[in-house]
Amino acid sequence: MTTLLLNARLIDPETATEFRGSVLIEAGRISRIIADGDALPKADETLDCNGKCLAPGIIDIGVKVCEPGERHKESFRTAGEAAAAGGVTTMVVRSDTEPAVDSPETLQFALRRARDVSKVNVLPMATLTKDRAGKEMAEIGFLLDAGAVAFSDGDAVNRNNKIFGRCLSYARAMGALVIGHAQEPVMSDGACATAGPFASKLGLPAVSPMAERIQLERDMALVEMTGVRYHVDQLSTAVSLPVLERAKAAGLPVTAGVSIHHLTLNELDIDGYRTFFKLKPPLRHEDDRIAMAQAVASGLIDVICSLHTPQDEESKRLPFEEAASGAVGLETILPAVMSLVHAGHLDLPTLWRAVSFNPAKVMGLESGRLAEGAPADLVLFDPDKPFVMDRFKMLSRCKNTPYDERRMQGAVLATFVGGAQVYSRD
């Protein structure tokens, strides 16, 4: 069966261009890209895009699906529905579940569940050490064979340089990607805000932005020593950027991401002790937010992700210091990133390099491109459609979004995975 998506504003992140045209889908892949004015081929099914934007689907690195162990927060089914509604066609899911994904059996369970119930592609990470405890290396070779696409202990930062270095050396020998978290654990312990006058005013335990830089310096030294492919899951402070820049200039195999929340929110948003804004790392100064946006625009930061972290009402409706960290983001990543376009920080092709093309390169995927032969994982969206976010209409099982009741612009109209339409906005 062939499908023709016609009259679209095509966003091509690979060539950094946008143009009018149509896309022919055949056997789950992009068969032809037709420029505006060229003769249109016949197709079994035709969808008029009415001049709206058509781009590669979002590839979201670092999604937490709480299955097994905490299905009441998020399952593969609900995460898949939320992802499709948010224009996310591939989720790279984290290993910090209960139990952690540190054995081939647990990994295979996740893959089977995802295959059976998820509307979108699911690629699983596995832990770097057993139970993320930082003491004993996980079975990296067996986990690779079982389908792991990357290895990460998440925010359980390994304090033992000797053990961590051995893990990186072994991962390098196996050709594995390691994903790390740049927060010095001793300085960050117990902190829930960024150090400064505002945190002092609220009386909250805080951490200096230097905690991120210190950890990043350590990690880059070990990457230089081992040569492992390394992706920093999220940077959030301006003081870390020179470290990343030096590492890339030295030719180290390093990439970095930033969460959409740290690109669109700042430390002032926690005023009133609103726990839906409690994140890890904590929200930063406005100067840091702007520096992160500029780093994405320049290409220094490669990837924008949602860091989707579902938390139930019971864990959020607590005093700020005691409340769980994290926010859901699968359904809000597109309108949130569109605020960067409307504010003039990024254009659409540059933005889509960060949410689709670059994540595909980091993970070694064919997708993320608007090119003939590429998988037909696509999102059709209206970049200007205004709406008010209502968390109770979200498809995620947990509703802990910091954007609740916020006026936003940008709506997903349809999502395609392998050429099949998995979401349509009513």
UniProtKB/TrEMBL annotation:
GO BP of this protein: purine nucleobase catabolic process; pyrimidine nucleotide biosynthetic process
One Pfam family from the record: DHOase
Cellular component annotations (GO), alphabetically ordered: cytoplasm
Keywords tagged on the record: Pyrimidine biosynthesis, Zinc
Gene Ontology terms for molecular function: allantoinase activity; dihydroorotase activity; metal ion binding
Sequence ranges assigned to domain Dihydroorotase catalytic in this UniProt record: 51-237
SUPFAM superfamilies from the UniProt entry: Composite domain of metallo-dependent hydrolases (SSF51338), Metallo-dependent hydrolases (SSF51556)
InterPro entries with a match to the protein in the record: Amidohydro_3, DHOase, DHOase/Allantoinase_Hydrolase, DHOase_cat, Metal-dep_hydrolase_composite, Metal_Hydrolase
Residues annotated as domain Amidohydrolase: 346-423
Name the record gives this protein: Dihydroorotase
Organism annotation: Neptunicoccus cionae
Organism lineage string: Bacteria, Pseudomonadati, Pseudomonadota, Alphaproteobacteria, Rhodobacterales
